[in-house]
Amino acid sequence: MAWNTPGSSNSGGSSGRPPRRGPGGRNLDALLDPLRGLFGDGSGGNILRWVAIVVGLWLVFNCFVLITEQQRGVVLRFGQFARVMQPGPHFKLPWPIERVTKINATQIKTFSENVPVLTADENIVLVEINVQYRVSDPQMYLFGTRDGDAMLAQAALSTVREQVGRSTLDTVLGARNALAVSARDQLQKSLAAYRTGLAVTELNLPNARPPEEVKPAFDDVNSAQQDKDRLISEARAYAAQVVPEARGQAARVRTVAEGYKTASIARAQGDADRFSLLVDQYQAAPEVTRKRLWLETVQEVLADNRKIVGGDSRQLLYVPMEPAKGGSTPGNLLSPETLAPAVTAIEQAAEQSTRSGRTPRPTGREEVTR
């Protein structure tokens, strides 16, 4: 039974019940009468009422959009891009005016592949590629290209082939970190040029190996290369040990030779100066110089030779000298006759220096004794 049917208990006049009053004494039944008339009478009014409720709820839920922290909402108005919704609650116009596509912008996606690549030195190597990426621009990801993920896969394979193709096999096997860095930069530039809206977070080349068909030959080459490196290292270690020792010995010999040279020159210069001074002293006082030379010579001989004392208290001095032409032996006694030739040579040199007015230079070291 409708609310406004006469005689109904819901009617405010014919039932005899007093009208309901609201705050301020207003008649609530009078206020609800227009709403009751909106739904009409009978079962048709009930249907319209429920349709209106459903439509209202649909509008409320369709216009309200909740974007989580991991998502970004791309709003299309009549199929054209309008705006990007950030995380939080939002309202939009009902469908079909505006439509929201939610994109997970923080999810890290992964692409992995093993690809055969020809290196710069014409060797084939299997390179493992691992790319991690995410959506950086939701609008560009949806409308910049048809399939951004497939575009990234193709661009990653092309970039790695280009970088590895410019490098040698040794570089690919032993220095892949530098290749991975350059490949990541190049891949990011390619994705920006293709308008994919994707950002590469990491690109790695974790493994590189030769094909199975040539693996035994490749292992032999690696073994030979390792032997070569080992022998080179041992040779360098040996050179590092031997060369410093040889240089040290050469420096020592050179230093000894320099010292011997300096000492020999100084000794010869001193002997020459001494002989010149002896000549001058002999010219000034022949007898005194003669006696002094004899005493110095006897002192040197006695210091370097042994003395034998005979039973008659005589001291015999043995001088170890080479035999002379006259048949004398090293055991001859030191006498003035044996020293006479040396004294005569000094006297002749002094007389010649006096006549010529210059000091003669000796040809060797001479010791005079008396």
From TrEMBL:
Annotated localization: Membrane
Superkingdom of source: Bacteria
Keyword Transit peptide: no
Protein's UniProt keywords contain NAD: no
Chain ranges of the Band domain: 62-222
Region entry Disordered, spans: 1-26, 345-370
Family to which the UniProt record says this protein belongs: Belongs to the band 7/mec-2 family. HflK subfamily.
Subunit structure: HflC and HflK may interact to form a multimeric complex.
Name of this protein: Protein HflK
Lineage: Bacteria, Pseudomonadati, Pseudomonadota, Gammaproteobacteria, Lysobacterales
